[in-house]
Specification:
Strand content: under 5%
Shape: elongated
CATH architecture of one domain: Orthogonal Bundle
Largest sheet: 2 strands, antiparallel
Structural class: mainly alpha
Strand order of the largest sheet: 1-2
């Protein structure tokens, strides 16, 4: 995950719902950068936009999204047989 998006998630989980201005100050990034990353995080399901122009993230929501993402990349590998080591 992108470093800025990770910072946003950590900030929201620790501090609770925040506006783009508060996030920009806390992460030391421009509001435009924060807005761009918030849109990405929201569309991926990691955060929620609230009615009062604040965004929130809950650790359990983030955890569920990460579990779903990991499941998409899990691949079943066939069992391998390792030949026995040669005895001298």
């Amino acid at each position: 995950m992108n470093r800025t998006r990770s910072q946003i998630l950590r900030f929201l989980i620790r501090s609770g719902p925040s506006t783009t201005g508060v996030l920009a100050s806390g992460i030391q990034a421009s509001r435009a950068t924060i807005r761009r990353h918030l849109l990405i995080l929201e569309s991926a399901g990691y955060i929620q936009a609230l009615a009062d122009e604040r965004y929130s993230a809950h650790a359990s929501l983030v955890e569920c999204q990460l579990i779903d993402l990991a499941a998409q990349y899990s691949v079943q590998m066939p069992p391998t047989t390792v030949p026995p080591l040669a005895q001298d």
